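Working notes for the structural subgroup meeting. M.R. asked for a predicted model of this chain before we commit to crystallization trials. I am recording the input and output together here so anyone reviewing the notebook later can reproduce the run.

Input as submitted:
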Amino acid sequence: MKRMASRIIWIIVMLTVLAAAGFWLIRRGSGNVVSFRTEKVYRGELINSISATGTIEPEDVIDVGAQVAGQILAFGKDVNGREVDYGSTVDKGTVLAEIDDSVYASQAAEAEAQIQSAIANIRRSEADLEQSKARFVQAEQDWRRAESLGPSEAMSPVSYDGYKAAFETAKAGVAISEASILQAKAGLAQSEAVFQRARRNLGYCTIKSPVKGVIIDRRVNIGQTVVSSLNAPSLFLIAADLRRMQVWVAVNEADIGRLREGIPVSFTIDAFPGETFRGTVGKIRLNASMTQNVVTYTVEIETDNSNGRLLPYLTANVSFELDRRADVLIVPNAALRWKPGTEQIVPEFRDIVAKQSDQKEKKGRGGQSDGPAKSGRPDKKGPAMIWEVFKDKVKPIEVKAGISDGVMTEVEGEGLAEGQEIVSGIESSTAAAAGTAGGASNPFTPNFQALRGGRR
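Returned structure, recorded in token form:
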């Protein structure tokens, strides 16, 4: 009897298990079992920012060129007594390079000789003037005597006319001598100008640093010939002060309207992984550029480089901080985007949700839409809705969405607390079962429902 009773109990247990398994398989095969993917609400800091890429640039760069043509004969010495090269520190007036000056030295000597010749011409013209004045005095006295006698028996008409002509000629000779002096002085001024130009060209053969700074680039070598024509050839690039650096960032026209001077900026450099540098927006250049129909503006970011770690022309990954919220509740954007089907909502909330949907449709495009607030208006908080699991369905939580960083969004609302779990998507057991045998999840099988309601 005991064995029979045990067998009956065992049969009853097996039938119960089989009935439960059959019910589970029927529900599983129907595809109605849905599990919700949830995320936790947490409290923290949120930054609304714009990301871009830029280049580290010295704040003040001087391109030192050559104004004369010639061969580079030698380089100067930097403050440490070494030959000027990349990275050399130089003072204002430090000799950077020497250009062959033989041609310009001969031109200067020739111009100086022309000055001496012009001076001699002036002296000769002055002497000629004195002679002309003496002739004029003699001719004037002869003419006065002839004029007092007049044509008579004492003076023939021919002699009278001769004295008059000699007087006029002497008078004109004085004027010619005075003009010769002016011409000689003008020649002297011209010779002096030619000499000054020759001396200046001779001086240009010695290339000096116009500022105190660091040599960023040396673009010539000893023995190389530089040719100066319409444009001065560039020889050296000098940074006046590497302790002050700038980041030049190309910002898309869609984002430029949200930037202004003084906005805090953070940026990272691949050369220093894990380290963040700080700066502020200093200037927004107005000369836009277009590349492949994309308009960008150059934004200058000022940053301190007192430690000298930032090197010129490093690539910077820049983040413009438009707004910052500290100690606020934050949820994933996927939770704000996800919307359940009517059958997934707790029945007592379906009418409320339907009415809200109708009101939003009536507002049309002019009304507020669910989701994160636009980063361009961080102070505006729009109504939104997130969902909480209630038994095997979801119920709504009305919130106000604030700023977003593209992944997370600031929210506030009644009934919302830190650590609370909210829905960000769904995972159908049918999709999971189809992916693997025995109901195991296959990570390589796409979950279309989750993608539809999950994070982008």
